[in-house]
Amino acid sequence: MLELSDPARITAGIVLLTVVGIESGGLFLLKVFGGRMATTDLQKSFFRAGHAHAGVLVVLGLLCLLLTEATALTGFVRWLAGTGVLCAAILLPAGFFFSAMGQGRTSPNRAVVLLPVGAVVLAAGVVTLAAGLLLA
Q: What residue intervals traverse the membrane (predicted)?
C-alpha cells in the first residue's frame, strides 16, 4: 500500500476538489459552442485549450505528486517534482482564458505571457521528477 506524506495527501485532496471547477468550465464551453455566448474564433480556440489543459494537467499533476513519494528528493526539488505540474495546471489554463477575455477579442492580450511561463514550469517539474525517479 502506498503511504502518502501528510503534505502530499492534503495537496491531493485539495486538487481533487478543483475538478468541480473544471466541470463548471465544461458548462461554460457548452454555452460557448452552443452559440449562447458571442465569441470569436480565437476565444473559442483558447477557451477549449484552457479547459483541456486544466483537465489533463490536474490528472498528470496528481500522478506526479504520487510518484514524488517514491523519490529521495528533498527541499525545493521535491516540491518542484511534486507540484510543478500542478502549478502549470494553473498557469497554462489561466494564460489561455485570461489572454482571450474581452468582447470581440481576435488576438491575445498580455496575459498570453503565462503560456511560456507555464510551459517552463511544466517542463521543470517533469524533468525534476524523472531525474528523482531515475536516481532513486
A: 12-33, 54-73, 79-100, 112-135
Residue 7: what residue type?
P
- Residue-by-residue DSSP string for the chain: -----HHHHHHHHHHHHHHHHHHHHHHHHHHHHTTSS---HHHHHHHHHHHHHHHHHHHHHHHHHHHHTTS---HHHHHHHHHHHHHHHHHHHHHHHHHT-STT--S--GGGGHHHHHHHHHHHHHHHHHHHHHH-
Domain encompassing residue 63? 6-135
Cell numbers placing 92: 497554462
If the chain, 136 residues long, is cut into consecutive pieces of 10 residues, what is the mean pLDDT of each piece? Answer: 87 94 88 90 95 96 96 97 98 97 95 98 98 94
